[in-house]
Amino acid sequence: QVQLVESGGGLVQAGGSLRLSCAASGGTFSRYGMGWFRQAPGKEREFVAAITWNGASTYYADSVKVRFTCSRDNNKKMVYLQMNSLKPEDTAVYYCATDARIYISGTYDHWKSEGTYDYWGQGIQVTVSS
Q1: 20 to 30 Å CA-CA from 53: which of 25, 59, 92, 105?
Q2: CA separation for the pair 65, 9 (Å, rounded)
Q3: 3-state secondary structure string, 45-102?
Q4: Rounded to an integer, what distance in angstroms lies between the CA atom of residue 16 and that of residue 4?
């Protein structure tokens, strides 16, 4: 089984920054694409960002593009989400997820779909105050 653990969340004022980290264990991390999703209270879970197995391509939801940056370190088996210029509407539980199929490039529609991902972290709270 692939286990994912998010960290780095917390409370921040609007305009501030946070960096989320996702630590992976099990499987072969360096062969997997990774995604970030979030779910705000009373709302559906939505796609945030994704990165391919080798970091060659990244994908972002329009709502976070430019402000957020997804990256990975395969040696450390970590994926990151740098969040800048945070807004109150970014408040949500953030989840990282793994596409257990190997060496996938895919398209935006592929990475946006929850069905793409096989394993999910427990989620971590990000709260942005106004």
Answers
A1: 92
A2: 19
A3: CEEEEEECCCCCCEEECCCCCCCEEEEEECCCCEEEEEECCCCHHHCEEEEEEEEEEE
A4: 26
Using CA atoms of 23, 128, 125, 70 in order, give the dihedral in degrees to the nearest 10: -30
Contact 39, 114 (CB under 8 A): no
Tens of pLDDT, residues 112-129: 999 999 999 999 999 999
Give the alpha-carbon dihedral of 32, 38, 43, 45, to 10 degrees. 0
CB atoms within 10 A of CB 46: 15
Distance CA 94, CA 10 (A): 11
Which pair of structure tokens corresponds to residue 25? 């264990």
How far is it, in rounded angstroms, from Cα 104 to Cα 66? 24
Q: What is the pLDDT of residues 67-103, one digit of tens each?
A: 999 999 999 999 999 999 999 999 999 999 999 998 8
By residue count, the chain amounts to: 130
State both tokens at 3: 């286990």
Q: Which of 57, 61, 65 is nearest to 47 (CA)?
A: 61
